[in-house]
Amino acid sequence: MKLLKTYTIIAFAATMILNLTSCDKVGGDFALDYEADPALLPEVSFSASATTIIEGESITFTDTSTNDPSFWTWSLVGSEFGEYTEQSPTVIYTVPGEYDVKLKVRNEYGASEVLLEDYIIVEGEPLPFVSIFRFDGNLEDTEGTNGITAVSSYGDVTYVADRNGNASSAYLAPPFPPYSQDLTIPGYKGVSGDAARSVVAWFKTGAGTGRKAIVGWGTNSPGQMFNVMLQGGQVRVEGGGCSLRTSRTDLMDDQWHHLAVTYDPADGPEVARVKVYIDGALDENLPDAPGQSFNSERREVNTDPDGIDVRIGRPAYRTDYMWVGELDDVAILDIALSPDQIGALAAE
């Protein structure tokens, strides 16, 4: 490394600019000929108070570099401000993702830097599941606030590989007839009235034209029911005396799909305000017309709080609209999930 000093002299009378460079001696050698000994450069190192956090949490990075460092530049992509010059900054990460950390340190002899790729993992805020069933070889709900284990109406349950190939990690509905074979969440009546809600699930089913219920609760009266199902390859949401259908028709293709159904009363009280997301993308609601939606603009969401216990694989009223195929990660929330939250679930 060459250490140079440059001086500028401006002579106004002669309109002359002269640049002079001095050569200081360093260790007996002139700076123009001096290369810093690598052993004199900073040896960069640091530690972090955590490497996996939840969005909105902070991390303290502690510089542990040696060889008398005097200047620091932290490049912390994904953090609140991005770059920092403190020796040991405390920073906040607000967006989920995996982020690099780069630290450049200087002393009087020069600079050194280190880059650690994907060193920080920022996870999204845990979703407030009321009930969620992972079907990892059992019917337990270990993450929802309910914590209620589901009950089979027909005996032993069969578990199969999930969408990621994990053995015994998805629910396989029994063949029917006989009818009335489903799972029940005992004592849980679902989200009632016009309260915000979300139903999410992974599903896989083959071709058919009949209705296949994923989740249902309430009472079969106008506006007092909430069923989420498929019909003829489309999503169908029933509110009691009405139904909402969406545009995609290819969902009975024996492939795994992610489904999210949300209702936010801030969007309006009608069943037509329900939103349906398939594989993370918002699907188009069909209008009230023959063979499409029915009474969805007239009926309001007002789910009966005293209806049936929530059923998985069967609607709130019929015994023959049973689910056929596989289900996984079936969940109910008492909030309307955002598109970003749904996208994250669909990417799991």
UniProtKB/TrEMBL annotation:
Molecular function per GO: hydrolase activity, hydrolyzing O-glycosyl compounds
InterPro entries reported for this sequence: ConA-like_dom_sf (IPR013320), Ig-like_fold (IPR013783), PKD/Chitinase_dom (IPR022409), PKD_dom (IPR000601), PKD_dom_sf (IPR035986)
The protein's matches in SMART domains, at most eight in alphabetical order, are given as: PKD
Identify the PROSITE patterns for this entry: PKD
Can you give the residue ranges of the PKD domain? 42-112
Highest taxon listed in the record's lineage: Bacteria
Q: Which Pfam families match?
A: Laminin_G_3, PKD_4
Q: What is this protein called?
A: PKD domain-containing protein
Q: Where is the composition biased (Basic and acidic residues)?
A: 296-307
- Disordered: region residues: 287-307
A GO biological process of this protein is: carbohydrate metabolic process
